[in-house]
Design a protein that fits this description.
Blueprint: H1 4-22, H2 27-67, H3 70-106, E1 126-130, H4 144-150, E2 154-155, H5 156-162, E3 169-170, H6 172-191, E4 195-197, E5 202-204, H7 205-210, E6 223-224, E7 229-231, H8 236-241, E8 247-249, E9 255-264, E10 283-293, H9 298-315, E11 320-324, E12 336-344, E13 349-360, H10 362-367, E14 370-372, E15 378-380, E16 382-390, H11 391-401, E17 403-404, E18 407-408, H12 415-418
Parallel strand pairs: 4-9, 8-14
Antiparallel strand pairs: 1-11, 2-3, 5-7, 6-7, 9-10, 10-16, 11-12, 12-13, 13-16, 14-15, 17-18
Helix pairs in contact: 1-2, 2-3, 4-11
The chain binds one RNA strand of 87 nucleotides through helix 2 and helix 3.
RNA sequence: GGAGAGGUGGCAGAGUGGUAAUGCAACAGCCUGCUAAGCUGUCAACGAGCAAUCGUUGCCAGGGUUCGAGUCCCUGUCUCUCCGCCA
Protein backbone atom coordinates (compact mmCIF):
# COMPACT_ATOMS: atom_id res chain seq x y z
CA UNK A 1 0.00 0.00 0.00
CA UNK A 2 1.25 3.45 -0.83
CA UNK A 3 2.05 5.74 2.07
CA UNK A 4 -0.46 8.47 2.73
CA UNK A 5 2.45 10.91 2.99
CA UNK A 6 3.24 10.27 -0.67
CA UNK A 7 -0.27 11.23 -1.66
CA UNK A 8 -0.25 14.33 0.50
CA UNK A 9 3.04 15.44 -0.96
CA UNK A 10 2.60 14.69 -4.63
CA UNK A 11 -0.72 13.22 -5.65
CA UNK A 12 -0.72 14.48 -9.22
CA UNK A 13 2.54 12.84 -10.14
CA UNK A 14 1.27 9.57 -8.65
CA UNK A 15 -1.82 9.73 -10.85
CA UNK A 16 0.29 10.61 -13.90
CA UNK A 17 2.78 7.89 -13.36
CA UNK A 18 0.23 5.13 -12.88
CA UNK A 19 -1.71 6.29 -15.90
CA UNK A 20 1.33 6.64 -18.13
CA UNK A 21 3.15 3.45 -17.16
CA UNK A 22 0.42 1.10 -15.99
CA UNK A 23 -2.29 2.52 -18.26
CA UNK A 24 -4.55 2.64 -15.25
CA UNK A 25 -6.59 5.66 -14.25
CA UNK A 26 -6.69 6.18 -10.49
CA UNK A 27 -7.53 9.89 -10.55
CA UNK A 28 -10.80 9.68 -8.70
CA UNK A 29 -9.52 7.30 -6.01
CA UNK A 30 -6.40 9.35 -5.32
CA UNK A 31 -8.30 12.62 -5.20
CA UNK A 32 -10.84 11.10 -2.88
CA UNK A 33 -8.10 9.85 -0.58
CA UNK A 34 -6.58 13.30 -0.56
CA UNK A 35 -9.85 14.97 0.41
CA UNK A 36 -10.74 12.36 3.00
CA UNK A 37 -7.31 12.71 4.54
CA UNK A 38 -7.83 16.44 4.99
CA UNK A 39 -11.15 15.78 6.65
CA UNK A 40 -9.64 13.08 8.81
CA UNK A 41 -6.93 15.34 10.16
CA UNK A 42 -9.41 18.11 10.81
CA UNK A 43 -11.57 15.64 12.71
CA UNK A 44 -8.63 14.39 14.71
CA UNK A 45 -7.74 17.93 15.75
CA UNK A 46 -11.22 18.63 17.15
CA UNK A 47 -11.45 15.19 18.64
CA UNK A 48 -8.12 15.66 20.40
CA UNK A 49 -9.18 19.04 21.75
CA UNK A 50 -12.43 17.67 23.09
CA UNK A 51 -10.76 14.63 24.62
CA UNK A 52 -8.26 16.90 26.26
CA UNK A 53 -11.08 18.92 27.83
CA UNK A 54 -12.71 15.73 28.99
CA UNK A 55 -9.49 14.51 30.60
CA UNK A 56 -9.11 17.78 32.47
CA UNK A 57 -12.66 17.71 33.79
CA UNK A 58 -12.36 14.07 34.79
CA UNK A 59 -9.29 14.70 36.85
CA UNK A 60 -10.98 17.70 38.45
CA UNK A 61 -13.89 15.48 39.43
CA UNK A 62 -11.41 13.06 40.92
CA UNK A 63 -9.87 15.83 42.98
CA UNK A 64 -13.30 17.01 44.16
CA UNK A 65 -14.20 13.55 45.41
CA UNK A 66 -10.91 13.34 47.24
CA UNK A 67 -11.63 16.66 48.94
CA UNK A 68 -15.20 15.70 49.72
CA UNK A 69 -16.58 18.43 47.46
CA UNK A 70 -19.47 16.37 46.11
CA UNK A 71 -21.63 19.25 44.90
CA UNK A 72 -18.89 20.67 42.72
CA UNK A 73 -18.21 17.23 41.34
CA UNK A 74 -21.83 16.74 40.38
CA UNK A 75 -21.88 20.09 38.62
CA UNK A 76 -18.81 19.17 36.65
CA UNK A 77 -20.41 15.86 35.72
CA UNK A 78 -23.24 17.73 34.04
CA UNK A 79 -20.73 19.51 31.86
CA UNK A 80 -19.45 16.24 30.52
CA UNK A 81 -22.68 14.90 29.03
CA UNK A 82 -22.54 17.11 25.96
CA UNK A 83 -18.84 16.62 25.54
CA UNK A 84 -19.27 12.91 25.77
CA UNK A 85 -21.77 12.78 22.92
CA UNK A 86 -19.60 14.97 20.75
CA UNK A 87 -16.55 12.85 21.39
CA UNK A 88 -18.49 9.73 20.53
CA UNK A 89 -19.72 11.06 17.24
CA UNK A 90 -16.32 12.54 16.33
CA UNK A 91 -14.75 9.20 17.03
CA UNK A 92 -17.24 7.50 14.73
CA UNK A 93 -16.54 10.01 12.00
CA UNK A 94 -12.82 9.59 12.46
CA UNK A 95 -13.01 5.81 12.30
CA UNK A 96 -15.17 5.73 9.23
CA UNK A 97 -12.90 8.22 7.46
CA UNK A 98 -9.91 6.15 8.42
CA UNK A 99 -11.49 2.97 7.07
CA UNK A 100 -12.57 4.64 3.85
CA UNK A 101 -9.04 5.89 3.26
CA UNK A 102 -7.59 2.47 3.92
CA UNK A 103 -10.03 0.80 1.55
CA UNK A 104 -9.17 3.25 -1.19
CA UNK A 105 -5.44 2.97 -0.55
CA UNK A 106 -5.71 -0.79 -0.95
CA UNK A 107 -6.97 -0.18 -4.47
CA UNK A 108 -3.98 1.85 -5.62
CA UNK A 109 -1.17 -0.26 -7.10
CA UNK A 110 2.50 0.37 -6.46
CA UNK A 111 4.32 3.16 -8.28
CA UNK A 112 6.36 1.75 -11.14
CA UNK A 113 10.12 2.33 -11.15
CA UNK A 114 11.72 4.53 -13.84
CA UNK A 115 12.92 1.51 -15.77
CA UNK A 116 9.42 0.10 -16.23
CA UNK A 117 8.38 0.47 -19.86
CA UNK A 118 4.90 1.88 -20.42
CA UNK A 119 2.47 -0.61 -21.90
CA UNK A 120 -0.71 -2.53 -21.55
CA UNK A 121 -0.05 -6.17 -22.43
CA UNK A 122 2.81 -8.64 -22.46
CA UNK A 123 3.66 -7.48 -25.97
CA UNK A 124 5.09 -4.34 -24.43
CA UNK A 125 7.47 -6.22 -22.16
CA UNK A 126 11.13 -5.47 -22.82
CA UNK A 127 13.21 -8.40 -23.92
CA UNK A 128 16.59 -7.88 -22.33
CA UNK A 129 18.16 -11.14 -23.35
CA UNK A 130 16.96 -14.04 -25.42
CA UNK A 131 18.53 -17.33 -26.39
CA UNK A 132 18.48 -18.22 -30.08
CA UNK A 133 15.68 -20.73 -30.60
CA UNK A 134 15.70 -21.28 -34.37
CA UNK A 135 17.99 -24.33 -34.28
CA UNK A 136 16.03 -25.85 -31.45
CA UNK A 137 12.78 -26.19 -33.34
CA UNK A 138 12.03 -29.61 -34.67
CA UNK A 139 8.63 -31.07 -35.32
CA UNK A 140 9.73 -34.50 -34.11
CA UNK A 141 10.10 -33.25 -30.56
CA UNK A 142 7.30 -34.26 -28.24
CA UNK A 143 5.62 -31.90 -25.79
CA UNK A 144 6.22 -32.82 -22.16
CA UNK A 145 2.75 -34.29 -21.61
CA UNK A 146 3.50 -36.92 -24.24
CA UNK A 147 6.88 -37.57 -22.69
CA UNK A 148 5.27 -37.88 -19.29
CA UNK A 149 2.94 -40.65 -20.44
CA UNK A 150 5.57 -42.30 -22.65
CA UNK A 151 7.97 -42.68 -19.72
CA UNK A 152 5.29 -42.83 -17.01
CA UNK A 153 6.57 -39.76 -15.16
CA UNK A 154 3.48 -37.72 -14.41
CA UNK A 155 -0.12 -38.91 -14.49
CA UNK A 156 -2.57 -36.10 -15.11
CA UNK A 157 -5.64 -38.35 -15.33
CA UNK A 158 -4.95 -39.89 -11.96
CA UNK A 159 -4.88 -36.43 -10.43
CA UNK A 160 -8.28 -35.73 -11.92
CA UNK A 161 -9.58 -38.92 -10.35
CA UNK A 162 -8.45 -38.15 -6.83
CA UNK A 163 -8.74 -34.35 -6.81
CA UNK A 164 -9.44 -32.61 -10.09
CA UNK A 165 -7.76 -31.07 -13.11
CA UNK A 166 -4.50 -29.31 -12.34
CA UNK A 167 -3.43 -31.67 -9.57
CA UNK A 168 -1.04 -34.11 -11.25
CA UNK A 169 0.45 -37.22 -9.70
CA UNK A 170 4.21 -37.59 -10.11
CA UNK A 171 5.44 -41.15 -10.39
CA UNK A 172 8.72 -43.00 -10.16
CA UNK A 173 11.52 -41.19 -11.91
CA UNK A 174 9.19 -38.24 -12.45
CA UNK A 175 8.75 -37.85 -8.72
CA UNK A 176 12.46 -38.35 -8.09
CA UNK A 177 13.42 -35.79 -10.71
CA UNK A 178 11.05 -33.28 -9.13
CA UNK A 179 12.55 -33.91 -5.71
CA UNK A 180 16.06 -33.66 -7.16
CA UNK A 181 15.30 -30.24 -8.63
CA UNK A 182 13.91 -28.99 -5.32
CA UNK A 183 16.96 -30.24 -3.48
CA UNK A 184 19.28 -28.68 -6.08
CA UNK A 185 17.55 -25.29 -5.84
CA UNK A 186 17.59 -25.31 -2.04
CA UNK A 187 21.25 -26.26 -1.86
CA UNK A 188 22.24 -23.56 -4.34
CA UNK A 189 20.32 -20.95 -2.35
CA UNK A 190 21.86 -22.10 0.91
CA UNK A 191 25.30 -21.74 -0.61
CA UNK A 192 24.42 -18.20 -1.61
CA UNK A 193 23.57 -17.09 1.89
CA UNK A 194 19.83 -17.61 1.91
CA UNK A 195 18.66 -19.14 5.17
CA UNK A 196 16.30 -22.00 4.59
CA UNK A 197 12.82 -21.94 6.11
CA UNK A 198 10.09 -24.53 6.19
CA UNK A 199 6.87 -22.61 6.68
CA UNK A 200 3.14 -23.30 7.06
CA UNK A 201 1.17 -23.86 3.89
CA UNK A 202 -1.90 -22.11 5.26
CA UNK A 203 -2.00 -18.52 6.41
CA UNK A 204 -4.50 -16.29 8.16
CA UNK A 205 -6.29 -13.33 6.67
CA UNK A 206 -3.92 -10.76 8.16
CA UNK A 207 -0.99 -12.37 6.38
CA UNK A 208 -2.91 -12.27 3.12
CA UNK A 209 -3.32 -8.53 3.51
CA UNK A 210 0.26 -8.09 4.62
CA UNK A 211 1.83 -9.13 1.35
CA UNK A 212 -1.00 -7.75 -0.77
CA UNK A 213 -2.74 -10.90 -2.01
CA UNK A 214 -5.81 -9.60 -0.25
CA UNK A 215 -7.98 -7.92 -1.21
CA UNK A 216 -6.53 -7.75 -4.73
CA UNK A 217 -6.46 -11.48 -5.48
CA UNK A 218 -9.17 -12.74 -3.17
CA UNK A 219 -10.64 -15.12 -5.76
CA UNK A 220 -7.28 -16.63 -6.66
CA UNK A 221 -6.62 -18.24 -3.30
CA UNK A 222 -8.20 -21.34 -1.86
CA UNK A 223 -10.06 -20.37 1.28
CA UNK A 224 -10.70 -22.78 4.14
CA UNK A 225 -13.84 -21.24 5.50
CA UNK A 226 -14.24 -23.26 8.68
CA UNK A 227 -11.01 -21.89 10.07
CA UNK A 228 -10.78 -18.77 7.93
CA UNK A 229 -7.39 -19.71 6.53
CA UNK A 230 -5.97 -19.45 3.04
CA UNK A 231 -3.81 -21.96 1.19
CA UNK A 232 -0.67 -20.12 0.19
CA UNK A 233 -0.32 -19.14 -3.49
CA UNK A 234 3.42 -18.73 -2.90
CA UNK A 235 5.76 -19.04 0.07
CA UNK A 236 6.35 -15.30 -0.21
CA UNK A 237 3.26 -14.91 1.97
CA UNK A 238 4.33 -16.85 5.07
CA UNK A 239 8.00 -15.93 4.72
CA UNK A 240 7.54 -12.17 4.39
CA UNK A 241 4.84 -12.12 7.07
CA UNK A 242 7.31 -13.52 9.58
CA UNK A 243 8.54 -9.94 9.81
CA UNK A 244 5.14 -8.30 10.13
CA UNK A 245 5.20 -5.62 12.87
CA UNK A 246 8.91 -6.18 13.35
CA UNK A 247 11.68 -3.70 13.90
CA UNK A 248 15.02 -4.80 12.53
CA UNK A 249 18.35 -3.30 13.51
CA UNK A 250 19.97 -1.72 10.46
CA UNK A 251 23.11 -3.80 10.72
CA UNK A 252 21.06 -7.00 10.51
CA UNK A 253 20.00 -6.09 6.97
CA UNK A 254 19.78 -7.63 4.48
CA UNK A 255 17.71 -10.61 5.56
CA UNK A 256 17.82 -13.46 3.08
CA UNK A 257 15.53 -16.49 3.12
CA UNK A 258 14.75 -19.39 0.87
CA UNK A 259 11.78 -21.68 1.22
CA UNK A 260 10.29 -24.57 -0.62
CA UNK A 261 6.52 -25.04 -0.50
CA UNK A 262 3.74 -26.27 -2.67
CA UNK A 263 1.68 -23.38 -4.01
CA UNK A 264 -2.07 -23.39 -4.49
CA UNK A 265 -3.88 -21.26 -7.03
CA UNK A 266 -7.47 -21.42 -8.16
CA UNK A 267 -6.60 -19.96 -11.57
CA UNK A 268 -10.21 -19.07 -12.21
CA UNK A 269 -10.77 -18.17 -15.82
CA UNK A 270 -7.83 -20.09 -17.30
CA UNK A 271 -8.59 -22.54 -20.07
CA UNK A 272 -7.44 -24.35 -23.21
CA UNK A 273 -3.86 -25.00 -24.11
CA UNK A 274 -2.69 -22.52 -21.47
CA UNK A 275 -3.48 -25.18 -18.90
CA UNK A 276 -2.32 -28.22 -20.85
CA UNK A 277 0.11 -30.51 -19.07
CA UNK A 278 2.34 -28.69 -16.62
CA UNK A 279 1.71 -25.24 -18.05
CA UNK A 280 -0.68 -24.11 -15.36
CA UNK A 281 -1.59 -26.10 -12.27
CA UNK A 282 -3.71 -25.62 -9.17
CA UNK A 283 -0.98 -27.11 -7.03
CA UNK A 284 2.68 -26.82 -7.91
CA UNK A 285 6.04 -26.76 -6.18
CA UNK A 286 8.20 -23.69 -5.96
CA UNK A 287 11.41 -22.64 -4.29
CA UNK A 288 11.24 -18.97 -3.42
CA UNK A 289 13.89 -16.49 -2.36
CA UNK A 290 12.99 -13.47 -0.25
CA UNK A 291 15.08 -10.52 0.85
CA UNK A 292 14.49 -7.61 3.17
CA UNK A 293 16.91 -4.78 2.50
CA UNK A 294 17.84 -1.22 3.21
CA UNK A 295 16.03 1.08 0.75
CA UNK A 296 19.28 2.27 -0.79
CA UNK A 297 20.31 -1.31 -1.57
CA UNK A 298 17.14 -2.82 -2.96
CA UNK A 299 17.81 -2.29 -6.65
CA UNK A 300 21.32 -3.72 -6.42
CA UNK A 301 19.76 -6.62 -4.61
CA UNK A 302 17.16 -7.04 -7.34
CA UNK A 303 19.91 -7.29 -9.97
CA UNK A 304 21.79 -9.81 -7.87
CA UNK A 305 18.69 -11.91 -7.42
CA UNK A 306 18.01 -11.90 -11.15
CA UNK A 307 21.62 -12.91 -11.83
CA UNK A 308 21.37 -15.65 -9.28
CA UNK A 309 18.23 -17.15 -10.83
CA UNK A 310 19.67 -16.83 -14.34
CA UNK A 311 22.66 -18.77 -13.03
CA UNK A 312 20.39 -21.62 -11.97
CA UNK A 313 18.81 -21.83 -15.41
CA UNK A 314 22.23 -21.78 -17.04
CA UNK A 315 23.41 -24.63 -14.82
CA UNK A 316 20.46 -26.64 -16.07
CA UNK A 317 21.41 -25.75 -19.65
CA UNK A 318 17.99 -24.45 -20.56
CA UNK A 319 17.52 -21.80 -23.25
CA UNK A 320 15.85 -18.81 -21.69
CA UNK A 321 15.02 -15.18 -22.07
CA UNK A 322 14.85 -12.29 -19.66
CA UNK A 323 12.07 -9.72 -19.67
CA UNK A 324 11.48 -6.47 -17.95
CA UNK A 325 7.73 -6.30 -17.39
CA UNK A 326 5.83 -3.34 -18.74
CA UNK A 327 3.43 -1.31 -16.62
CA UNK A 328 0.35 -3.24 -17.64
CA UNK A 329 1.90 -6.61 -16.90
CA UNK A 330 3.51 -5.50 -13.66
CA UNK A 331 2.00 -7.03 -10.52
CA UNK A 332 -0.18 -4.85 -8.33
CA UNK A 333 2.35 -4.74 -5.51
CA UNK A 334 5.55 -4.50 -7.55
CA UNK A 335 7.67 -1.50 -8.53
CA UNK A 336 9.91 -3.39 -10.94
CA UNK A 337 9.75 -7.01 -12.07
CA UNK A 338 11.94 -9.21 -14.22
CA UNK A 339 10.54 -12.42 -15.63
CA UNK A 340 12.67 -15.32 -16.73
CA UNK A 341 11.18 -17.68 -19.29
CA UNK A 342 12.59 -20.96 -20.47
CA UNK A 343 11.97 -22.26 -23.94
CA UNK A 344 9.66 -25.20 -24.46
CA UNK A 345 10.90 -26.97 -27.58
CA UNK A 346 7.93 -29.33 -27.61
CA UNK A 347 5.38 -26.52 -27.58
CA UNK A 348 7.46 -23.92 -29.37
CA UNK A 349 6.79 -21.27 -26.76
CA UNK A 350 8.28 -19.53 -23.78
CA UNK A 351 7.28 -20.55 -20.26
CA UNK A 352 7.53 -18.20 -17.30
CA UNK A 353 9.63 -19.91 -14.65
CA UNK A 354 10.54 -17.00 -12.43
CA UNK A 355 9.30 -13.57 -11.54
CA UNK A 356 11.61 -11.42 -9.48
CA UNK A 357 10.30 -8.20 -7.99
CA UNK A 358 11.18 -5.25 -5.84
CA UNK A 359 8.19 -4.07 -3.84
CA UNK A 360 10.05 -1.18 -2.25
CA UNK A 361 7.89 -0.11 0.72
CA UNK A 362 4.56 -1.27 -0.72
CA UNK A 363 4.50 -4.45 1.35
CA UNK A 364 6.48 -3.16 4.32
CA UNK A 365 3.99 -0.33 4.78
CA UNK A 366 1.15 -2.80 5.18
CA UNK A 367 3.32 -5.13 7.21
CA UNK A 368 4.78 -2.37 9.39
CA UNK A 369 8.15 -3.92 8.65
CA UNK A 370 10.70 -1.37 9.72
CA UNK A 371 14.34 -0.97 10.56
CA UNK A 372 16.03 1.42 12.94
CA UNK A 373 18.47 3.70 11.16
CA UNK A 374 21.67 5.27 12.45
CA UNK A 375 19.71 8.10 14.05
CA UNK A 376 17.50 5.57 15.83
CA UNK A 377 14.57 6.55 13.64
CA UNK A 378 12.19 3.94 12.29
CA UNK A 379 12.07 3.55 8.52
CA UNK A 380 10.21 1.17 6.26
CA UNK A 381 12.43 -1.54 4.80
CA UNK A 382 12.26 -2.75 1.20
CA UNK A 383 11.06 -6.25 0.39
CA UNK A 384 11.92 -8.36 -2.64
CA UNK A 385 11.24 -11.86 -3.79
CA UNK A 386 11.65 -14.18 -6.71
CA UNK A 387 11.02 -17.73 -7.79
CA UNK A 388 14.17 -19.80 -7.72
CA UNK A 389 12.54 -21.65 -9.29
CA UNK A 390 9.00 -22.75 -10.17
CA UNK A 391 9.14 -26.48 -10.72
CA UNK A 392 6.52 -27.54 -13.29
CA UNK A 393 7.63 -25.39 -16.19
CA UNK A 394 11.29 -26.10 -15.49
CA UNK A 395 10.35 -29.76 -15.56
CA UNK A 396 8.48 -29.28 -18.85
CA UNK A 397 11.33 -27.43 -20.57
CA UNK A 398 13.88 -29.81 -19.18
CA UNK A 399 12.12 -32.99 -20.29
CA UNK A 400 11.45 -31.63 -23.74
CA UNK A 401 14.92 -30.37 -24.56
CA UNK A 402 16.69 -33.42 -23.20
CA UNK A 403 14.68 -35.98 -25.16
CA UNK A 404 16.72 -38.29 -27.36
CA UNK A 405 16.24 -41.58 -29.15
CA UNK A 406 17.53 -43.48 -26.15
CA UNK A 407 15.52 -41.57 -23.58
CA UNK A 408 15.67 -38.38 -21.56
CA UNK A 409 19.13 -37.32 -20.47
CA UNK A 410 19.47 -35.85 -16.99
CA UNK A 411 21.49 -32.59 -16.87
CA UNK A 412 24.95 -32.98 -15.38
CA UNK A 413 24.27 -30.91 -12.23
CA UNK A 414 21.24 -33.00 -11.32
CA UNK A 415 22.83 -36.44 -11.61
CA UNK A 416 24.13 -36.42 -8.02
CA UNK A 417 20.58 -35.67 -6.90
CA UNK A 418 18.66 -38.16 -9.05
CA UNK A 419 21.00 -41.09 -8.81
CA UNK A 420 20.25 -41.97 -12.44
CA UNK A 421 21.51 -40.46 -15.68
CA UNK A 422 18.70 -41.28 -18.04
CA UNK A 423 15.00 -41.85 -18.11
C1' G B 1 -13.99 -31.11 21.67
C1' G B 2 -14.77 -30.28 27.57
C1' A B 3 -12.94 -27.70 32.25
C1' G B 4 -9.81 -24.08 34.55
C1' A B 5 -5.97 -20.08 34.57
C1' G B 6 -3.90 -16.20 32.04
C1' G B 7 -2.44 -12.24 27.90
C1' U B 8 0.78 -5.19 30.65
C1' G B 9 6.60 -1.67 26.72
C1' G B 10 12.76 -5.19 23.52
C1' C B 11 12.62 -8.65 27.99
C1' A B 12 11.28 -9.40 33.26
C1' G B 13 7.47 -7.82 36.41
C1' A B 14 3.89 -4.61 39.90
C1' G B 15 -0.66 -2.55 39.50
C1' U B 16 -8.96 -4.64 41.66
C1' G B 17 -11.98 2.42 39.36
C1' G B 18 -8.51 8.47 39.81
C1' U B 19 -5.28 8.47 34.53
C1' A B 20 0.81 2.76 33.55
C1' A B 21 5.61 1.46 39.43
C1' U B 22 10.29 -0.89 39.35
C1' G B 23 14.40 -3.88 37.38
C1' C B 24 17.38 -5.51 33.16
C1' A B 25 18.85 -4.54 28.16
C1' A B 26 19.48 -0.79 24.23
C1' C B 27 20.39 4.31 22.49
C1' A B 28 21.79 9.62 23.34
C1' G B 29 23.86 13.24 26.54
C1' C B 30 26.44 14.56 31.12
C1' C B 31 30.17 13.31 34.60
C1' U B 32 34.74 11.28 36.26
C1' G B 33 42.90 9.86 34.40
C1' C B 34 40.86 5.03 31.65
C1' U B 35 37.28 1.11 32.63
C1' A B 36 33.28 0.17 35.77
C1' A B 37 29.75 2.85 38.33
C1' G B 38 26.58 7.21 38.66
C1' C B 39 23.13 11.04 36.81
C1' U B 40 19.50 12.82 33.01
C1' G B 41 16.66 11.72 29.00
C1' U B 42 14.83 8.59 25.07
C1' C B 43 12.87 4.02 23.54
C1' A B 44 4.80 2.86 19.97
C1' A B 45 0.94 5.38 16.73
C1' C B 46 -1.53 9.80 14.95
C1' G B 47 -2.10 14.99 14.70
C1' A B 48 -0.75 20.53 15.45
C1' G B 49 3.75 23.77 14.95
C1' C B 50 9.45 26.67 11.26
C1' A B 51 10.97 24.88 15.93
C1' A B 52 11.71 24.04 21.27
C1' U B 53 7.31 21.75 22.29
C1' C B 54 2.14 20.49 22.89
C1' G B 55 -2.27 17.37 22.47
C1' U B 56 -4.62 12.67 21.67
C1' U B 57 -4.30 7.47 21.51
C1' G B 58 -1.81 2.97 23.22
C1' C B 59 -2.04 -2.55 28.92
C1' C B 60 -4.39 -9.25 23.03
C1' A B 61 -8.85 -7.44 19.55
C1' G B 62 -13.82 -5.38 19.36
C1' G B 63 -18.01 -3.59 22.01
C1' G B 64 -20.37 -1.90 26.84
C1' U B 65 -20.86 0.43 32.02
C1' U B 66 -18.67 5.16 34.25
C1' C B 67 -17.26 12.05 34.89
C1' G B 68 -13.02 8.66 34.60
C1' A B 69 -11.32 1.55 32.76
C1' G B 70 -4.97 -2.01 32.62
C1' U B 71 -8.66 -2.68 36.66
C1' C B 72 -15.83 -4.00 36.15
C1' C B 73 -19.34 -6.52 32.20
C1' C B 74 -20.09 -9.01 27.16
C1' U B 75 -18.06 -11.23 22.58
C1' G B 76 -13.93 -12.93 19.95
C1' U B 77 -8.87 -14.57 19.85
C1' C B 78 -4.29 -16.60 21.45
C1' U B 79 -1.16 -19.05 25.23
C1' C B 80 -0.65 -22.41 29.41
C1' U B 81 -2.53 -26.64 32.65
C1' C B 82 -5.81 -30.94 33.11
C1' C B 83 -9.17 -34.41 30.50
C1' G B 84 -10.67 -36.50 25.71
C1' C B 85 -9.05 -37.62 20.63
C1' C B 86 -4.94 -38.46 17.44
C1' A B 87 0.10 -38.91 13.29
Amino acid sequence: MLQIQQIRADKDSIIDRILKIRKLDVTSQVNEIFDLDLKKRETQKTLDDFSSKMNIISSQIGDCFKNGDVDKANNLKKETTDLKDQIKSLKNTFNSLDNLIKELLYQIPNLPHDLVPPGKTDEDNQIIYSAETKNLMNSDLLPHWDLCSKYNLIDFELGVKITGAGFPVYKGKGAILQRALIQFFLNEANQNGFQELLVPHLVNETSGYGTGQLPDKEGQMYHVENDDLYLIPTSEVPITNIYRNDIIEENNLPIKHVGYTPCFRREAGSYGKEVRGLNRLHQFDKVEIVQITHPSESYNTLDQMVNYVEGLIKKLNLPYRKLRLCGGDLGFTSALTYDLETYSVGQNKWLEVSSISNFETFQSNRLKLRYRDKNRNLQLAHTLNGSALALPRIMASLLEINQFQDGIHIPEVLKPYTGFEKI
